[in-house]
Amino acid sequence: MAQPGVAVGTTFGSPTGVGPLSPAVNVTSSVPPLTPEIPVPTLVAAVAVRRGRPQGPTNDHEIEDFIYDVFDLVSGANEVDVRCEGGRVTLSGPVFHKRVKHDLGEIAWALPVVNDVQNNVTLTTRRRARQPGRDSESPANVSSRKPA
Q1: Beta strand 116-123 pairing with 25-26
Q2: Whose CA, among 45, 109, 128, 129, lies 20 to 30 Å from 2?
Q3: Would the pTM count as exceeding 0.70?
Q4: d(CA 101, CA 90)
Q5: Where are the domains of the chain?
Q6: What is the distance between the alpha carbons of residues 82 and 59, in angstroms, rounded to a whole number?
Q7: 3-state secondary structure of 23
Q8: Which pLDDT tens digit goes with each residue over 60-107?
């Protein structure tokens, strides 16, 4: 199913084939999908167009901002930190599912100006809320001192 605003079969890259996003990436490629309906290249292309820079980011600061913009569209990625130095992206922070961790790494790799991705994202479990009064209950007969 095609996403609104992104035509199926369009390419993501510079029109001349020369530049930061060349060679062009076919958004109908077999890259693993972020969700069943949105492949990673399509998501990245949509954010690039929305930002008004279809050729994509060109420096480390723009790469970080760009990746944050894409992560805003991914459920569960709101606590992930992005750092970029010399085209090397480091991702860190917690997520609740290993598929999200994988997808975040794929998003970073989808940018042609990125030459390395260090995915330090950790998997955490969701904690259930404790039942009220559970912590405040203590046995009445237990002494805090050891008998002599």
Answers
A1: unpaired
A2: 109
A3: no
A4: 12
A5: 11-123
A6: 14
A7: coil
A8: 999 999 999 999 988 889 999 999 999 999 999 999 999 999 999 999
